[in-house]
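Blinded run. Sample ID left blank on purpose so nobody reads anything into the name before looking at the predicted structure. Input follows.
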Amino acid sequence: MEFSSDVLTLDVDGHVATLWLDRSEARNAMGSALWRDLPLAAAAIAAEPDVRVLIIAAKGPHFSVGLDLKEFGGGFAAPSSSSSRAASNAQAYQAVRTMQASVTSIADLTVPVIAAIHGYCIGGGVDLVSACDVRLCASDAKFSVRETKVAIVADLGSLQRLPKIISAGHLAELAYTGKDIDATRALAIGLVNAVYDNSDEVLAGARALALEIAQNSPLAVQGTKAVLAANDGRSVDEGLEFVARWNTMYLQSNDLREAMMAFMEKRPPVFNGD
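Blinded prediction complete.
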């Protein structure tokens, strides 16, 4: 798998890939290099047929402190005299759309994505983990939809994706106040599936979950993710129509035959994804 970045590291072990936020000296603050390289990492993962699950984790003591304000601070300055307000606004709009697309590249992966979180997960960090399918965290994790505290409306996906993860009341409280919540509160409101004692254990937990998923037919797992995503904006009947069409196309797979043979032979199935 060809991928190189100054702020991300990608490892593949069998059917499980791990994408590391790897800028620990800056507490994994999210700058232009991250927004540029994250879609490239997603493309590399999507192009690797053996990868069935992705884990997103972080090097250093924190998952991410969010947007690199040191880098982006200048972007909030007044436009130069040589640029019109309209041109400056258009440039700012495009910058936001580029960052949004970067996060969406993770949400759009066909394989399940598990976030393994420790330490601070703030602002853009929450945007990123909300684009994942499952979130696990260490007991030291702190979450914050922090943007209102720095006079910004969160615009990279938290306000759009979190309503599908936590209730409207909890999201409103977090987004309006910008407060920090700990791992216990995150578990109570459904932001994370489980809490582990430390960063090593949450990574081990993510790995164990990834391996459990990877044992299943990748066609069926990816199809399930597609059907779940297709439910958005559809009625129950429309969702049933979508899954009927999906299974009509993909049900007669070699994996299904292997599942039936394994059942008859009383052995674990070995799926190849075809």
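Unblinding after everyone has recorded impressions. The CA atoms of residues 110 and 240 lie 20 Å apart.
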